[in-house]
Amino acid sequence: MASLGEIIRNSQIWKSVFRHPAPLDRRNRVVVMLTNFFLHLHPVSVKKQGIALSYTWCMGGVTFFLFLVETITGVLLMFYYRPTLEWAYHDILDLRDVTSLGILREIHRWGAHAMVITVWLHMYRVFLTGSYKPPREFNWVVGVILLLLTLLLSFTGYLLPWDQLAIWAITVGSNMARATPILGNEGPGQQLLSIGSIDMITNASDARFALLGARFVGEETLNRFYILHCIAIPLVVAFLLAIHFWRVRKDGGISGPL
Amino acid sequence: MHGFDPSFEARSAEFLGFFYLALALMNATASLYLWQAGKDKIKVWFNLGGVAFTNVLGWLSLSMLCVILAAAAMGGIPPKLPGWFIRNANAALTGNPGAIVYTLATTALLIIAYYWRRFFVKPVVAWTLFNASLLLMGLAMTNRPFWEIVAKPDNVPIVALVFLLGFFTWLATYKSVTNDDRAVEGLPPLEKDDDEKVLVWPDLVYTELICMIAITALLLIWAILLKAPLEEPASAVKTPNPSKAPWYFLGLQEMLVYYDPWMAGVVLPSLVIVGLMAIPYLDFNKKGNGYYTISQRRFAYIIFQVGFLELWVTLIVLGTFLRGPNWNFFGPFEEWDAHKVLVLNNIDLSQILWNDIFGTSVPTVTSDMGTFDSLLVVLKREWLGLLSVALYFIVLPPLLATTVFRKFFIKMGFVRYMTMVTLLLFMASLPIKMALRWAFNLKYIVAIPEFFFNI
Ligand code: HEM
């Protein structure tokens, strides 16, 4: 008699979803890597050293997993959160006190902190194994941009609870933009951009204004940071991640001694 | 921070109970591992009436000690740091000199760790230090000011970061030292031995799955134990003191002590990013690609560690734990007093030049001057500062190219060499400005507030 597992695996439905038999023997373990959408990101076989935990620390993988966790919990949080001065703080309060899945906020916040840490550790590992050396130079550059975007994701998200911690951290952080050379209202060379005696760079037209959408952290800022945090930056990150992973493969897989 | 909190002792004791239990478990596991792996005979420390006291028994006794500590903590009497320790640590690390002591001490520690790395990578040494730092932290957690900063939910990740960095630096150094020793004997790096190919399913896919489950579990536990912070609703008129940026930017905020915002907030961070991206194109050393090593790429290694561990992570730790109200420096066990006033008499280089050396008053720009006239006054006033900065960035590179960086210059060519040296000079400018501030109270080398141009 066929076991339940076999019945399921032989059913038309199962076969239509998974285009290969169970990966129990060598041949099918190769086939599964080639025919499964999620697994085809990987090669079929790798050097043992390349997947040793003590070599990669699995930090790139963990960072990617945390990015997925953040995406999922983030989407769920968006169901509960309205980015307006009237509601933002209250919605967070409700997540804490009323919403049954309020723990989502904790997972999302600690996941974000953890992602910042793991992306640094990943960079640290890549540096210490010299994995940025040819042919992987460009993937390192992509990585640096990903690192920057990870920090920006975290930074823009910091504002959304709209409590004292949030707006003052963002105020301190974004005050720096005021001092951008040439483009900041209080930056060196600010006088260079003027027509006659009319200053082009004022506190209502400088780099900080572009960031905040206003002269101080307010409703426009909340809107801007919300869109950056939930849509713009994640899209760019997803795009760059695709390139990053593709390049890991095309550059010859995880690095190793030549 | 908000007056006396009677529940603090209870909360700290409860936490410490679990903390010491975890420590006990950790050491018990370690001795079990050593015993099972047959590594207990390596060193017989001494003989006690015929019973050999080995490393296994050593760690087991530490484990017992931790159980006793846990019991004490759960009973509400966790052992505390001695008073003299707290007093001395606070005295050494308070006020403006605190920043100097902290920076010199962390630098010295990093240098010692690097120089004697062969000693520190020994598992028994590393494990001892790890235990010591955890025990010290346990003792310190009974101190209220320390507890309030370290146990703040948003600061917990930084504690985690410090321990994780410690662990991974140890791991990488351990492997590097092994590989470097092998290289001396003419053997390939350890990584080379493992270049047999394995199938991704199951070897890698299962590892990934286990990692995912572990991370999920960790996040869930973290989320249950620690509530995400939520303070009072935002108010544009009530400025908290201190106002801090998110922790990963606190290194930049700390640079504001030494630099104007246009440098600390815009130019230097941009150069950090550019500099990181430039690394693969500047490092022409072909060795050390795909395995851990230190001695085969010493220069790149040291520069990166100075930048990452010293100038980035150490400054973040400083900015988070030791900077209090008004961005004053506080000892780790010191109450954050918002009324503490620290006198700062910082002066600009032009003031030193005109007041102290020439004995006259500093030339000033008056409001009736045109742009050109004020520019002339500024140039006259700031010539020494402008000259030093120019010398630093224009004269030093060729000077270095003919001396210490000779080989680099020949190998790299003009453009690559200039890029590297300029980036290095910018990096070095931070410790230089710190030292100038501490030694001479020097605020700006070039001070042109008229054009928002202060260096
Ligand atoms: C969102 C951030 C990032 C994600 C999700 C990510 C993910 C990954 C993954 C999964 C790998 C495969 C090997 C491994 O796990 O170590 C990898 C490799 C690599 N990453 Fe990243 N990464 C990120 C950021 C970075 C950063 C910041 C850098 C460097 C500055 C970087 C540079 C590289 C390089 C050079 C490789 C190839 C390493 C090798 O072949 O040994 N990545 N990345």
Q: Would you give an account of this structure?
A:
The complex is a heterodimer of chains A (258) and B (455). Chain A is an all-alpha fold. Chain A has one domain (55-248): Cytochrome Bc1 Complex, Chain C, CATH 1.20.810.10. Helix content of chain A is 60%, strand content 3%. Chain A has a two-stranded antiparallel ribbon with strand order 2-3. In chain A, helix 7 runs antiparallel to helix 8. Chain A is globular. The termini of chain A are far apart. The model of chain A has no long low-confidence stretch (mean pLDDT 90). By secondary structure, chain B is mainly alpha-helical. In chain B, 65% of the residues lie in helices and 4% in strands. Chain B has helices at 7-36, 55-74, 83-92, 95-115, 117-120, 123-140, 144-150, 156-184, 190-193, 200-225, 250-255, 261-282, 298-322, 349-357, 371-402, 406-440, and strands at 44-48, 51-54, 197-199, 447-448, 453-454. In chain B, strand 1 (44-48) and strand 2 (51-54) form a beta hairpin. The longest helix of chain B has 35 residues, at 406-440. At the A-B interface, helix 3, strand 1, helix 4, helix 5 and helix 6 of A face helix 8, helix 9, strand 3, helix 10 and helix 12 of B. The site of protoporphyrin IX containing FE has 27 residues of chain A, from helix 5, helix 7, helix 8 and helix 11.
Output the structural class of chain A. mainly alpha
By CATH reckoning, the class of chain A would read Mainly Alpha
Radius of gyration based on Cα positions of chain A: 24 Å
Query: In oligomeric terms, what are we looking at?
Result: heterodimer
Q: How many angstroms separate the termini of chain A?
A: 52 Å
**Main interface: chain pair and counts:** A-B, 99 and 92 residues
* Series of H and E elements of chain B: HEEHHHHHHHHEHHHHHHHEE
Give me the number of helical elements of chain A. Answer: 11
- Please give the share of residues in helix of chain B: 55-70%
Order of strands in the sheet with most strands of chain A: 2-3
Q: How many β strands of chain A by DSSP?
A: 3
The fraction of residues assigned to DSSP E strands of chain B is: under 5%
Shape of chain B: globular
